[in-house]
Write a structure and sequence with these properties.
Helix 4 packs parallel to helix 6, helix 8 packs parallel to helix 9 and helix 16 packs antiparallel against helix 17. The protein has an eight-stranded parallel sheet with strand order 1-2-3-4-5-6-7-8. The protein has a single domain, classed as TIM Barrel, CATH 3.20.20.140. The protein is α/β, with parallel strands linked by helices. The structure holds adenine and zinc ion. Zinc ion binds next to strand 1.
Length: 333
């Protein structure tokens, strides 16, 4: 069994495997612009974040009913369990669905049905994080938060994703303030393709508790020092960084330097159906390509539970303690 871990940066729509996409397309009468799964997979050669996002949003056309979202999440949780995931904090992109006429309730209740059974069926505790699309307006983000109000019992936090450059965090100051007032936790993608300054801005203006990616913090030593001092978790996604060309090859990924600097790094899969691996595969890949040794892998697993939103109650804290004990006791083969 792989080492126990939490996955904290995972877009549920990015777990849509080609086989499921075609099955849902047939069920829903959706015509896809690919002959078959093989032709679709061949399209997974991305130039950058935007070229990926174009395909990612396009393929969502097959997701229409609560049952579709339930199936999507259940399929992810089954795969994640086989890779050692014990806790998953799952992003979803409601604006991408609402724009297609699929309502917030369909998405949240469908995902929720799978999540409700996750602990029993897959041994994974779960949280949902609702993301705002940063290339859409601040008004649209606020309307999305409003639409989520009947479902807040299912939503732990808010995030910020989609095309980063030109859409600085401060654009979403008002909606993050409103989300905070509703008791929601806060994260944001920053420093994936955008500059290190977006990482600082997400902390200072949005008040986020974790940074998704944060790769480009390495360009600003003062920022690195701050992230270390404040123990701000970074949810890194090395396989994504290679596929979206943030780094040329995995062997050049800054993860070892980031860990050596004392940053609180976690490993995640981002959009595993598109990027060639789930989170267990990611642990394996950084061991092979970057020489992260077993104690380094244990640190990454421990960090994932430390950074998880498992502090809402005594039951949450007990769960975190249990997971940390599993990590400490884990024996590498
Ligand atoms: N890696 C990523 N960056 C920004 N937005 C995303 N949406 C899905 N995956 C994403
Ligand atoms: Zn992401």
């Amino acid at each position: 069994m792989p080492i126990p871990k939490a996955e904290l940066h995972l877009h549920i729509e990015g777990t849509l495997e080609p086989e499921l996409a075609f099955a849902l397309a047939a069920r829903n009468g959706v015509q896809l612009p690919y002959a078959d799964t093989e032709e679709l997979r061949k399209a997974y050669l991305f130039e950058d974040l935007q070229s990926f996002l174009d395909l990612y949003y396009g393929l969502m056309a097959v997701l229409r009913t609560e049952a579709d979202f339930e199936k999507l999440a259940d399929a992810y949780l089954a795969r994640a369990a086989a890779q050692g995931v014990r806790h998953a904090e799952i992003f979803f992109d409601p604006q991408a669905h609402i724009a297609r006429g699929v309502g917030m309730g369909t998405v949240v209740e469908g995902l929720g049905r799978a999540l409700d059974r996750s602990a029993e069926r897959h041994g994974i505790s779960t949280r949902l994080i609702m993301c705002f699309l940063r290339d859409q307006s601040a008004e649209s983000a606020m309307a999305t938060l409003e639409a989520a109000k009947p479902y807040l019992h299912r939503i732990t936090g808010v995030g910020l994703d989609s095309a980063e450059v030109g859409h600085p965090p401060a654009k979403f100051a008002a909606v993050y303030e409103a989300a905070g007032a509703l008791g929601l936790r806060k994260v944001a993608h920053a420093g994936e393709e955008g500059p290190a300054a977006y990482v600082s801005e997400a902390l200072d203006v949005l008040g986020v508790e974790r940074i998704d990616h944060g790769l480009r913090c390495m360009e600003d030593p003062d920022l690195v020092e701050r992230l270390v001092r404040e123990r701000v978790p970074l949810t890194l996604c090395p396989l994504s960084n290679v596929r979206l060309r943030a780094v040329d090859i995995l062997e050049e990924h800054p993860l070892p330097r980031m860990m050596a600097a004392g940053l609180l790094c976690t490993l995640n899969s981002d959009d595993p159906a598109y990027f060639g691996g789930y989170v267990g595969d990611t642990f394996h890949a950084v061991h092979e390509a970057l020489g992260i040794d077993p104690e380094g892998l244990r640190e990454l697993a421990r960090n994932s539970f430390e950074a998880a939103f498992l502090d809402g109650s005594a039951a949450d804290e007990a769960l975190r303690e249990r997971y940390l004990a599993e990590v400490a006791a884990y024996e590498f083969e």
